[in-house]
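Example record for the data management plan.
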Amino acid sequence: MDLQSSSFIHSAIEIVLSNLDDSDFNGNELASALSLSREQTHRKLKKSTSLSTGRFIRYIRLLKAYEFLLKTDYTGSEISYKVGFENPSYFNKCFKDDIGISPGEIKKMEDNFSPKGKDIYEFYLHPEIHELLKKAIPLPWDSDSSPKKNYQSLIWITLLIIVPFGIYFFQKEDSSKFHLPQNSRIAVIPFKNETGNPQLNSIGEIASSWIATQLDNVEGVKTVPAFTVDEYLSSLGVFRNDQDNRPTFSELVDARNLLTGNYYLSNNEIYFDVNLIDGITLESIYHFPINKGHRDSVMSIIEEIRLDVLGLLVNLEDVKIGKLKPPSYDAYSAYLKGLAEMKDGLYPSKAHNYFREATTLEPNFVMAQIFMSWFVDYSKVDSIMEKVEKIPTMTQYEKALYLEQSNMFQRRYKEALQVCLDVLDDYQQDYYFNIMAGHKYKSLFMPEKALEVLAQVQDPNVNEMGLIWHYFKTRNKAESLLMLHRFDECVEYLKSIPEDLQNSAIPELWISTYVAMGKGRDSVDSLLYTYRDQSFYPAYLVHAALEYQLKSNDSSSKYFANKAIEFLKEIPNEGVGDYDLIDAYFLTGDLESAESLINDRLKLQPQLKLELEIYLTYVRAKRGSFDQIENLLDQFEDKSELKWRRHEYPYHIAYHKARILALAGFKKEAISQLAIAKEEGQLRHYWDYERDIFLVSLFDDPDFLKLVQVES
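Corresponding structural encoding:
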């Protein structure tokens, strides 16, 4: 370790020690105190200590706890709070996992125990930082722990007798084990279908998903999440020293080893041939015995493979105890089909049907239940989340997904973001949590942070699951650049997106960028002409009208809104493009037609009653007197939140009130309601706050500008 790295580590340790009792102190706070980004901190710690930021902080907390346990009479619960653990049960679990024994056993063992072989032991004795740690946290691990010197000669004689036999038995015992490099991960690649029947392709994906999910964090084994593996699969063909300097798959996902396999079918018997290979050299490390069985028992065979892999890596007795019952083959197939359908858009109905099928067949299928919550009516989400919380087999990674989604649905966006960051502290390459952290940073008025975390995500290759995540990345990266007025960068980014990764967000982002850069109506009209044959064309016209309205360019806004009205009037299907048509009437100032259309739709689409009524309230607020406004506000007194348009999360009622007041010209009152909504966790969705056409009357107010100011 060079002098600069040593100084960095010493500073990091001192900062953690000075914040030891602060349970909220995490990787973000450490990075801020070091005047670095979270990603820079993570990289420097990983390089110097092989530890993630989260593990670095946790190890220091646990080492101090060890000292307290040895030298004080504090209870385990008291110590857990002193070293920054909010939950004593979680403290006990971390202590046992990382030290090797429970906190209550420390006093009994005293100096006769050290966690040799554990990563935390190697960390404490790291030659570059041991002296600093020893001064702050003196522990007896580097001294002779024998209480009496006169036993030394006896020990040496005993060792001379025992060691040769010990070496023999150790070698014999260890010949069936493979030791993973410290803090490394295994990527489980979807097994290759060699049956000749393409209908059995899902077996390979199921094997990858199940083994990766259920191996992770068992006895210290770490795997690459299935989402991340799927995003970078095509990089498997890239080798070291690639002439185009492309990163290898192993480098992209930070996996030292890969688990690969093929499967064959003969007379209804299915055979699995599995290898553990070196992620760098791609050479075989261990070839597992063939696993076989009747094709109807394929899930049991896949579980046996998981146990074989686990048996290679950890204690065999633990493996026997840890046998699991996987979901059925049909349920897992339906789940994977649901994920595949999500490539077609944000909320396709087929995906909903597949997740419903999976959860009907297997109510305890955690991942299927979590994604099912994306598609059901908001009123049903709580019951799904309650079911998931009670599933006893939930893994640590599944729990992180559950917590992220549960917090989002309860409008605890900061807490949801922290769940993402905690996962990324441990595994920076996680595709799903990088994407979701970027979304949350942007939505919490922190576009710089959003760009920082999204920079960790390589552009995905086209595959069966990629486009929904690409949709999230595209929107949040481009919108963050627009929030920061970095228009040229946004143009270059949109130009860089390959044709085969285009999605419905991209034309809208081009329109937003053109208008933000000051391009005139003709330029935007020419851009829109290239999309005239797409089904979203009228929505793009309304999008252009909205953008010009936000820039107070009333004539251009009305031009595109009127084009949308003419186009949508020709659509025979009632209900198609309704919100776009209501928007268009609103933007042209034809409030009578907007109100008439909403009333028509209230009769035809009663399932949208609340959403349509809230829009009707906005229209009436724009047209009404003060007395009418009071009546409009009164109707919401018993509500805490209301759905708006087709968005998956309800809006805080104070935000709806702010819109009504702003439309009626009551600026001060509107801004007060907005402040309440923001304090209560109302997200900054793309069309909210300073991009909300219902709030345009507030745009030049200093109090409003202060409220919507982005954070660094």
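Summary line stored alongside the record: The chain has six domains: 3-142, 144-175, 186-326, 330-405, 504-604, 613-712.
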